[in-house]
């Protein structure tokens, strides 16, 4: 650790802890998941940055959506995202969550993930290599440093819109709204 | 002096426990040919967790966890660390045995309240596993108490200073071996890691813990590690007059545990119980009989 | 001083007056037994102080004892006479409403004859007289068993008749032998001369008499008539048969064995016989699902217990046996009386048909419960002191055989408890068919309450009876004073 | 007229009066019952530290019947009246929906009164009379609910009756041997009796008290009886009634037989003491694991009652002052926490419409927080978590056993882990986990049930933190039974091999709790969520199926359940069957054919003639 780092630790330990202790819940229904195991095992060893996979969204602070999102998985993605404690960050992997990618004309996948949940970082590629994932994570660090990884705040303030989008495509959701919804009733 | 010990020993225990957690991750990484996280990584995790806004499932969810950690903290007051044992006068080994119940019980109440079946499964496994290793463990402890004719852990430690480590004195050899065999189960390391199996039951009791709760749970885990190792060192490896030597002994035991953890796959819970109730129990039983027959 | 002859004469006379009274006023008929037995009861109570001091010996017709017939009113006889009149009174009050249909006049007449016979048996001092009174008792009970006139009643009456007649015949032959040997029928006289004859000579008459009386007193192999007769008779008669008739038979056996023959070698045999009767009675009762048969078998068991107690022939055990006898009269009477109305309501004698009776007939069920608890020997009811005395007396003998027998007594008590508790559970805790609550008539309830009060009073303050019983037991055991007081 | 006579008069008079008042008005009766039981508590409390004997009755054949009070009687009487009072209060709401409430109240009070009679009895006759009254009134209360309760009541009364018959045999043998039944006089006579007689006495009394105390192998009646009885009475049954067996054991072994004799009675290995200890140990071990198998909340508690009776047995049978104190204190602890547990389970049963099946409950903590707190404290006491009364008493028992017989200690300690398992099963399956749809409208515990729970919970903690309070009285008992006095302070005890200081422990745990709580407060605010907001791998929580209760410890149970068949229960049932079979056979003697009957008469005569001819005994 260089001196700069140490200074930062003293100035804002919470922010630093958020940066260097990213507990990840992987959403692994897409093809991108095949890139995750190399990134967390001996070859690239994500743990040296404090990135480890955890079992439930309650324990996590980073949400990685690895690949295309079908309508069915979107439901689970929203649920999982809402169950993560704040502050929480989202990173999507691959082209599909950005604009549909090779599934751009599928009736059954969504094209723009950020319409339904806020996404802090998008790693393009089909599929991105593990190195790209690390690049994405470093980018997320900068965003956290600059307080720009504020997806959870956006989700909170624009919840009515997000919920409307979600219900538009999924129909009525089984769980009650996370935050109060404006404009209804 | 005394007051300082009261505050110092739980903090020391926490520190060592957290250090062990970090060290465990580092060592495991090195065994697996990885670089591994910094040793302070658990501390970073705890700071991060404390700042997260977690979901709470009710009053018992909070209280159980608090109870669990507090119970474990109190045990550290009874366990001699070197010569630091501020409350050894208020009760001996029996009190420790019973205080060791508070930790799992509080955790069980808390995660039961989280209303998640994964947590319930985990807790049921945790209690079963405890039942499994408690059988040989109690036999070992009773053999020790019978052999030294005292229930006070400080006296057991000081008596070992004359006779040598109990693990290597004659009537207690068998008990020592049995203790060594069940130690991985007591520390909750790999062959017996069914409780928190993350891939299987979503980390079991911890499934609904996030934020500060997970921080507490991590600290509780650290303390459990500390208590397990410290108990073994005190009872079997003669404790120590000097905190530093004591720490070194703990480190050795800890490394033993980590190596076991690194090379073994996970047992099913019934396999675990069957193992624990077979050889370690038989050896411990034989040890107790040996002590009774040869003892005073 | 009142004359104890009245104890026999009044009911006997009134019994034959019943048809006359009936022709005068129908309503009055029912009250004749009540009046007669009330009179007897008062008489008995007035006699107590005198009898406790000295037994009264009445020579009938003015002939002195070895030649004439005499009445011997000792404490034991008076105890039985009092018991008969008390139980008879209560049952006759119960009968006021219970006996409505059928040959009512004959019922009352026979009923009083039965009690007259019983009183006669316990008071007489003459063997042949005893036989005569016994026949009165038996014949009237044969008829009463068939009172309902249904198939079961008549069948069991005939069975009873056949066995009873065989028994009476044996008794008569035995008495004949005795007369042949001694030339006298006066019990005291025989008792005095008994030592002059070789024992083996006495064996045949004794066996014949014991077997003859054993039929009536329901000793084990001779008691086969009892369950049938008790279960098919009207409940009031069952109460009397169970509470009075078989106990009078037992009295006769005891009197003959203790006083007339006085052969102590045979006592242990009777103790065994008692235990056998007890065990078989209780086990048969355990297997019953018919409540009246159950009660009947339980009577056999109780008789066995009393026989056992008497056969041990110490003051303590005999006192205990007599206490148990008193308790049995009251409790079994109460049980039969209460069961009578419950059967009347449910229309069946099966225990399962009594389910939920506790709600429909609370007082009757309570009476049954008290009776059952008392019979089993639970404090604070009358059965406990009796059992206590018997067991303590038996253990006081300090013989190993007796101790084992006591163990069997306690075991059989457990069996007895089991089947009684089963009925009580059915009464209170099983769901019945939800009929309306309807009590038994006032007269029946009065009778049951009277018995309940007696049972509880005896259980709480057994000393009340103890002194009297202890002199009664010495009356039974002390042969010499009996002989002395008759042949003074 | 002494206080004891007044007490019994009030108690038994009150029973009658309660029943009569019930005929007039139920509210009047309820008020009276509560007032009566409170008055009893006060009267007994006033008798603190008194000793004395009075002859109160000579009506039973002139045998003097004696009442006596000493510290042993006092502590039992106090417990009985205290629990009796609380159970009456608890019944107020519980019994509202039931029939025949007057009968229930009268019987409940009768049971309590007769138990007071037992502990105040100064002679064995009085003891036996009250014992029997207690037995049959209990029988009536157990059968009260009908249905399966019938069989339970039957089993109870038959076993209990067999026990009392054994006791009667013992009492009467004492009477015939010494001519007196007064306990104080018997003790003097006993010392000169032969050891065979003493062993006989210990065996017959042991059967009687063992049945009541549900010591293995006499435990078979208890589980069903406890489960089927009405819950307020289950509390009394489990709390105090079976402890009459403990009272009896203490009385037999240390008062009647005497301490010195008891310790040396019997052969070396088969000494009475070691047999009792082994029975106690088996009573701990087997029922603890059987309790794990239970799916019925009250049955689980019932088996746990048996197991705890084993601890008490270990304590009082071991025969040192420390173990004796432990045994009596554990009796006291068990009364408190087991009554509490039965009451909380009863409250749940009451509010959920009679559900006791652990597999169909869950999540009730949100609906019945009071009951949960009560259960938690009760369970902690049961396990023996430090700061509860169960800890202190178990500590005393272990402490005294540990060097003498480590194996027994091992069994007892291991039993504690079994206790943890079934306790957690109880509390988890009722209160934790997901709340089923059908229980959404469960109301909170009513006040009349809260009040006893609060008092009992408080007592659990009070005696746990300040064990000196009960131990002072217990020390008097211990001394009066002929043991050495203990070194007791308000917060613990100093024994020759270590000390216990609960106040330090309390301070430490409190400090720990506060510290951890503050630490938790440092962290970010937490957001309360509903049970539906739960991790289900991203899906919405499925309704009514998202719970883990059935086969809670299945891996273990599959291993051990083949070994846990209740041999003795089967054995007793076999005996019952055999008796029925035999009786049915014997019944066939009476064939119904009159020819046979006459044949019997002839056979009887010929048998007697044969006997006479062969051996000529006459």
Structure description:
The complex is a heterotetramer of chains A (185), B (296), C (488) and D (618). With 185 residues, chain A is α/β, with parallel strands linked by helices. Helix content of chain A is 40%, strand content 11%. Chain B has 296 residues and is an all-alpha fold. In chain B, helix 3 packs parallel to helix 9, helix 7 runs antiparallel to helix 9 and helix 7 runs antiparallel to helix 11. Chain C has one domain. Chain C has 21 helices and two strands. In chain D, 60% of the residues are buried. In chain D, the strands form two sheets. Chain D has a three-stranded antiparallel sheet. In chain D, strands 1-2 form a two-stranded antiparallel sheet. Chains in contact: A-B, A-D, B-D, C-D. Chains B and D meet through strand 1, helix 3, helix 4, helix 5 and helix 9 of B and helix 16, helix 17, helix 18, strand 5 and helix 21 of D.
* Amount of beta strand of chain A: 5-15%
Number of domains of chain C: 1
Total domain units of chain A: 1
- Oligomerization state of this entry? heterotetramer
Order of helices and strands of chain A: HHEHEEHEHEHHH
What profile does the largest beta sheet of chain C have?
Answer: 2 strands, antiparallel
The helical percent of chain C reads: over 70%
Report the strand count of chain C: 2
Note the beta-strand portion of chain C: under 5%
Q: Strand arrangement, largest sheet of chain A?
A: 2-1-3-4-5
Principal-axis shape of chain C equals globular
Class inferred from helices and paired strands of chain A: alpha/beta
Number of E-state strands of chain A:
5
Write the layout of secondary structure elements.
The complex is a heterotetramer of chains A (185), B (296), C (488) and D (618).
Chain A (H helix, E strand, L loop, with lengths): L2 H9 L1 H8 L2 E5 L8 H5 L11 E2 L8 E5 L4 H13 L5 E5 L2 H4 L21 E3 L6 H16 L5 H7 L1 H12 L15
Parallel strand pairs in A: 1-2, 1-3, 3-4, 4-5
Helix pairs in contact in A: 1-2, 2-6
Chain C lengths: L4 H20 L1 H4 L1 H23 L2 E4 L10 E4 L1 H24 L5 H20 L3 H19 L5 H32 L4 H7 L5 H19 L7 H8 L2 H27 L5 H20 L4 H22 L2 H32 L10 H4 L1 H15 L6 H15 L2 H30 L12 H19 L2 H15 L1 H8 L2
Antiparallel strand pairs in C: 1-2
Helix pairs in contact in C: 1-3, 1-5, 3-4, 4-5, 4-11, 4-14, 4-19, 4-20, 5-6, 5-11, 6-7, 6-11, 7-9, 7-10, 8-11, 8-21, 9-11, 10-11, 10-13, 11-13, 11-14, 12-13, 12-18, 13-14, 13-18, 14-16, 14-17, 14-19, 14-20, 16-18, 16-19, 17-18
Chain D lengths: L2 H22 L1 H21 L5 E6 L7 E5 L1 H24 L6 H20 L3 H19 L5 H31 L4 H8 L4 H19 L8 H7 L2 H11 L1 H14 L2 H5 L8 H22 L3 H22 L2 H31 L17 H15 L5 H13 L4 H26 L15 H19 L2 H13 L6 E3 L2 E4 L2 E4 H21 L4 E2 L25 H7 L6 H21 L6 H22 L3
Antiparallel strand pairs in D: 1-2, 3-4, 4-5
Helix pairs in contact in D: 1-2, 1-4, 2-3, 2-4, 3-4, 3-10, 3-15, 3-19, 4-5, 5-6, 6-8, 6-9, 8-11, 9-10, 9-14, 10-15, 11-14, 13-14, 13-18, 14-15, 14-17, 14-18, 15-16, 15-17, 15-19, 15-20, 16-18, 16-19, 17-19
